[in-house]
Amino acid sequence: MKQGRKSSGGKLKKTRKTKLFEKIGIVKQVTLGSLKKKSVKTMGGHYKSFLLRTDKVNVFIKKEKKCKMATIKNVKEVPSNPFLARKNVIVKGAILETDLGKVRVTNRPGQEACVQGTLIV
After folding, report:
1. Does CATH place domain 22-119 in 3.10.290.70?
2. What is the rounded CA–CA span in Å between residue 102 and residue 109?
3. Using CA atoms, how far apart are residues 78 and 80, in angstroms rounded to an integer?
């Protein structure tokens, strides 16, 4: 059976249009570069801010139990998609090369205003 058709062959019509909160937004990929943020108005009059570009990362060092800010040199590896590493896109689980060493990203930077990660020893 074709999509949008009844079994008799008649055309199905939509009961209503999609609402604003049901629409799928553009995929926001956080790339390596100078800091650039964007904020979007959400339901209830609130605002959500997210990253578009960044060159810094909050690194948690387990041995010292402290956080330090580090600059990102390069996106070394993205286990979920190898093509994202070539484009220098930062996603959760990506391995970054910083001045402190290799760091694995532990948050979702496309939905938050910073990049957080833990040091890989």
Report:
1. yes
2. 17
3. 6
